[in-house]
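Much of our argument rests on the idea that a fold can be written as discrete symbols. Part of our work consisted of pairing the sequence of a single chain with a tokenised description of its backbone. We regard such an encoding as a compact summary of how the chain folds. The amino acid sequence and the backbone structure tokens for this protein are reproduced below.
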Amino acid sequence: MLKAPKKLLIFAYGNPGRGDDALGPELIEFIEAEGMPDTEYQNDMQLQVEHVIDLMGRELILFVDADASCPEPFHFSRISAEKDDSYTSHAMTPHALLHAYHHVYRDEAAPAFLLRIRGYQFELGDPLSAKASGNLDAAIAFTRKLSTNADLLHWQSSHG
């Protein structure tokens, strides 16, 4: 018998071997250890079209990634399906994954959000930088608030 998917999906992506690109996977590690009810955690090096199946049956989706251009310590926003240049590539943006979901299932995915954590060093073999570690701490605290007040996400999905 198949289990029903958890209501909230937190999907982090990034390469742990590339310094601050590990911010998403690091956030998942901390948040998953705390165990939030009705939440599933996914982690991969990049988003791929196969991940559309992971979006099925969700009420809310939170993507988490490192970003070298967002403001410190992080940027949080609602996102929507959008066909972009990554649509047919090996690695996809969250927007393109939502678009692929719509294309495959002929339905809209659950309301989705993107948490971009400011990173600085992305070279192969780099450790997580001190500045990015501080940004990660702020993003973890923010995600904890979201997890304990999922109504905030529901409110933002209906107003935003």
User: Anything to note?
Assistant: The chain has one domain: 8-155. Helices lie at 23-34, 94-105, 130-148, 150-159. The mean pLDDT is 88. The longest helix spans residues 130-148.
